[in-house]
């Protein structure tokens, strides 16, 4: 699945744009003087869009004119990235013209962009694509005297309507916008749909262009920069945006319709239909692999494991291949494929085993696009496989050589996807992994030796579900010396060295787990006097993520992951010692989490049990203060986490 081509259009449209006479390119332009920027627009800003205009004109299903011009004033070094030009192009995106100029703080032009200075190269080794037709044109004036202004004009033609630009006049929270406008025109027979997000009242105007075609335009002014609020993203956009999507569209030689999710899914299915024929030797191999196995999940796991061991992921983004898979025979012969190719290959293997499955289009990653049921659009960057079942469907991440069948990980879990079937597309949800799947259980043992500064600590950890993904990736994929280095920095003891480390992969019901055993020599956790020994257990890690916000909270608290962490610490006391005091137990409840800490005394032992449970959700803004307070409370608690013993008297 192509991601770069989408990103190219999206990045280009972030600073989108056409022109006004006051800001047209000229030798000297007092209107661009930094002193003319209103003071309110400089607050929290590192760059200011002085004006930004864009024109999108849909001429036909395979011809879209896309013109932009913009001027942006760079206030300081932190805003210098806004001065760089980078445009991606390919078979379906042609750049007709690029112009640019650099102005000083007063609006005096220092130099203009020359075509020979534009950097032009393939995206090979930049994009991760093995085979791609995508290239980039890039340029930077490399100016360092602030403030200064850059001006660019870009004229492009798109030979497809399958993906279209979006308009986001404020590229980031640290940009302010003086004025920006956007216009969309199209032939009536090629109607374009749009959706407005977070625009001020009256921003849109409807009319006709010079040819009498529908013309829709938007304009915004004086948008201030702002400070971000951590753990607050609950939607796709937090700034003014206009989304575009076609009705009928064309992708190279293929035509389709995007007015509904059903029609878009049907197009994807038909685009890839007939490409799942296996070679005869692979058909025979399938039967030998599954043997007499009757259970559907076990057959999926067997064939998935075979594919994992005999193929690898290679991204192919050349022309139509960004959306149309290589056929199964090609993957079988060459041993590689991208997400579409590997998904199609496993689909073919399963079909030979009598198991029906479908490709599912998905927006993958942590910063993924949440599908809008009311606005069908092409916002996908990945493909996974779904094996429908009467109760719970089996989902497979075909690009992984590590995950078990039925487990997706954080890359694609808990989101809407578009299932592409012979009867059209259907929205459905990938699995959500809750606290019963995502957990960490840590069992720690310490035998106190008051005569030594070093203590021997034994740890047994069980990571399950999403909480084990990162650990599993490290121990599987990193070189041994890097794993050793990581082991010697991952724990929160004052000082320690790892004596022994081992792990084993376990898990059940398609949820992976990792169990590890660690022994370490630890220093700095006990202090002894003639009468007493103090064991500090404040090195137990804070289960919350540190987030800071001093300004008033106005956005919801958004927690994406449900999980639980249980710690049990067994302390074996020196012979003859007595417990003088233990830390105070805790019981804290908030809407988003609960925390429990308790201590048990046994003969010659102390057991500390700590449990933290967090629930994913969108919570009211005022709950953010509770989250911060709980984090700070658990940090303060570390200072009082001392087990105090009375030493054995001679």
From TrEMBL:
Presence of the UniProt keyword Signal in the record: yes
Gene3D superfamilies xrefs: 2.60.120.1130, 2.60.40.3140, 3.10.620.30
Pfam families: DUF3857, Transglut_core
UniProt domain Transglutaminase-like: residue ranges: 283-357
Signal peptide boundaries: 1-24
Keyword terms: Signal
Domain DUF3857, chain residue ranges per copy: 63-226
Protein name: Transglutaminase superfamily protein
């Amino acid at each position: 699945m192509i991601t770069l081509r989408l990103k190219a259009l999206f990045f280009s449209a972030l600073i989108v744009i056409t022109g006004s006479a006051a800001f047209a390119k000229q030798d000297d332009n007092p209107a661009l003087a930094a002193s003319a920027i209103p003071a309110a627009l400089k607050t929290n800003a590192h760059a200011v869009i002085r004006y930004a205009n864009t024109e999108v004109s849909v001429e036909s299903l395979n011809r879209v004119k896309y013109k932009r011009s913009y001027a942006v004033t760079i206030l300081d070094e932190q805003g210098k990235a806004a001065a760089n030009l980078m445009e991606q192009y390919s078979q379906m995106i042609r750049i007709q013209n690029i112009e640019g100029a650099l102005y000083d703080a007063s609006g005096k032009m220092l130099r203009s962009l020359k075509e020979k200075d534009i950097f032009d190269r393939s995206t090979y080794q930049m994009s991760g694509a093995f085979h791609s037709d995508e290239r980039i044109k890039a340029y930077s004036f490399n100016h360092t005297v602030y403030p200064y202004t850059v001006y660019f004009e870009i004229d492009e033609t798109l030979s497809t309507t399958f993906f279209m630009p979006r308009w986001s006049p404020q590229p980031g929270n640290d940009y302010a916008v003086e004025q920006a406008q956007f216009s969309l025109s199209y032939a009536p027979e090629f109607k374009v749909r749009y959706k407005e997000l977070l625009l001020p009242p009256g921003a849109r105007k409807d009319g006709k262009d010079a040819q009498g075609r529908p013309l829709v335009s938007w304009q915004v002014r004086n948008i201030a920069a702002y400070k971000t609020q951590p753990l607050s993203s609950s939607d796709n956009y937090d700034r003014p945006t206009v989304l575009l999507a076609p009705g009928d569209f064309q992708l190279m030689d293929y035509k389709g319709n995007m007015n509904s999710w059903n029609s878009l899914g049907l197009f994807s299915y038909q685009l890839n239909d007939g490409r799942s024929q296996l070679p005869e030797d692979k058909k025979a191999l399938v039967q030998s692999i599954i043997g007499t196995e009757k259970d559907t999940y076990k057959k999926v796991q067997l064939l998935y494991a075979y594919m994992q061991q005999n193929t690898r992921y290679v991204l192919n983004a050349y022309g139509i291949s960004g959306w149309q898979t290589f056929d199964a025979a090609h993957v079988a012969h060459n041993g590689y494929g991208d997400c579409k190719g590997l998904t199609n290959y496993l689909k073919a293997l399963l079909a030979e085993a009598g198991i029906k499955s479908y490709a599912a289009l998905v927006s993958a990653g942590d910063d993924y696009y949440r599908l809008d049921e009311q606005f069908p659009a092409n916002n996908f960057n990945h493909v996974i496989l779904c094996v429908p079942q009467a109760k719970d469907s089996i989902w497979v991440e075909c690009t992984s050589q590590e995950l078990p069948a039925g487990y997706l990980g954080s890359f694609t879990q808990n989101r809407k996807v578009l299932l592409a079937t012979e009867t059209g597309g259907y929205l459905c949800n990938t699995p959500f992994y809750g606290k019963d799947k995502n957990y960490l259980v840590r069992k720690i043992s310490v035998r106190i030796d008051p005569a030594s500064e070093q203590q021997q600590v034994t740890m047994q950890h069980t990571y399950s579900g999403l909480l084990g993904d990162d650990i599993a990736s490290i121990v599987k994929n990193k070189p041994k010396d890097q794993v050793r280095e990581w082991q010697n920095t991952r724990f929160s003891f004052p000082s320690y060295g790892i004596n022994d480390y081992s792990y084993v992969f376990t898990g059940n019901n398609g949820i992976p787990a990792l169990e590890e055993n660690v022994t370490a020599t630890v220093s700095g956790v006990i202090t002894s006097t003639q009468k007493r020994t103090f064991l500090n257990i404040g090195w137990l890690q804070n289960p919350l993520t540190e987030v800071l916000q001093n300004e008033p909270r106005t956005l919801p608290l958004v927690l994406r992951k449900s999980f639980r962490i249980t710690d049990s610490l067994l302390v074996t006391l020196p012979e003859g010692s007595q417990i003088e005091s233990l830390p105070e137990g805790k019981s804290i409840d908030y809407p988003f989490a609960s925390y429990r800490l308790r201590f048990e005394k046994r003969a010659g032992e102390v057991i500390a049990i700590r449990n933290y449970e967090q629930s994913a959700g969108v919570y009211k803004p005022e709950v953010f203060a509770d989250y911060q307070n709980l984090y700070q409370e658990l940090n303060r608690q570390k200072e009082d986490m001392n087990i105090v013993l009375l030493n054995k008297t001679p």
